Amino acid sequence: MTAFFLGILSSLTTSAVLLALSLLRASRPLWWLTAACSWFNGTGLRRVYRRQSAAERALADDIAHARWIKVMAGRGNILTRDAFAPLWSGDLSPASVQILLPDLRTPSGSWLDRRSQDVSRFDPGFTPDLLRSQIQANTAYLAQAVRSQRNIQLHGYDLPHTCRVIATDKVAYLTFYSDDAHGRNSPCLYAQAPGLLYTVALQQFETAWANSTQTLTTA
Predict the structure, then answer these.
(1) The pLDDT of residue 88
(2) Domain that holds residue 25
(3) Neighbour tally for 149: CB within 10 Å
(4) Which stretches of the chain score pLDDT less than 70?
(5) 37-66 burial code (b ≥16 CB/10 A, e <16)
(6) Residues 52, 18: one domain?
C-alpha cells in the first residue's frame, strides 16, 4: 500500500515539475518530455502553451481534421478569428458543432458581472458593460454565420466563468482563467484522447451543455 501511494506521489510530482518547466520556457524541446510523462501517469497532457493565443495555429489544424467540435468560451472572440472561419464558410463540415457562450439573461450582480469586475482591476480600459457587449456581438456574429448550417448549435450557459474548453474527437484545449489575466494570456493545456485531462475537459463541457437554459439559435 505504501509503495502504491509513493508511486502516485511520484507521478504527480513529476507532472508538476514538467508543467512548471513548460510554463516557464514554453519551448518545443520540452514538449516531448511532457508527453512522455503524461503517457506514464495517464493525464494525456501533450503540450503547454504559455499563452492561450499561441495555440491558435495548432487549433486550426485540429479543427480541420475533427469529426465533431465542442466549444465553451468565456466571451467567444476565438470563434470570430481564422481558426474557425472554415466552419462558417462551409469549407469544413464536421458531423456536429456545439458552442456554449455565456447567457446574457443572467441578472445584474451575477458571475458574469463579477468576472467583468475582476478583469477591470488589471485592465483599465475594461468598463463594467464591456464583457456583456462583447458576448452579445459574438453571439450575433455566430447566429448570422451558422444560420444555414444544420450541424451547428449555439447555446447559452449560466455557470461561473472559470475556463475555456475547445474539444474534438481527438484533442482538447483547456484554459483555466485567473483573476489577474485575460484568457488569451493564460496558459493553455493541450491534451489528447484518451487521458484524464481530455476526460475532464469533456465533462466540463457536457455539464454546462446539460444545464444550458437557452438555445440562442439552432441552424
Answers:
(1) 92
(2) 1-39
(3) 14
(4) 1-42, 214-219
(5) bbeebebbbbbbbbbbeebbebbeebbeeb
(6) no
In terms of pTM, does the model score above 0.90? no
Place of cell 510523462: 37
Please state, in angstroms and rounded to a whole number, the distance separating the CA atoms of residues 23 and 17. Answer: 10
Instruction: In whole angstroms, give the CA distance from residue 166 to residue 176.
Output: 12
**Whole-number Å distance between alpha carbons of 135 and 50:** 25
Q: Contact at 8 Å (CB) between 28 and 48? A: no
Residue 89, judged by CB atoms within 10 A of its CB (0-12, 13-18, 19+), counts as: exposed
Q: Do 29 and 71 share a domain, yes or no?
A: no
183 and 169 within one domain: yes
Do residues 78 and 186 both lie within one domain?
A: yes
Do 80 and 182 belong together in one domain? yes
CA separation for the pair 25, 17 (Å, rounded): 12
pLDDT at 94: 95
**Residues composing the chain:** 219
How many other C-beta atoms are found inside a 10 Å radius of the C-beta of residue 144? 11
pLDDT tens digits for range 53-73: 899 999 999 999 999 999 999
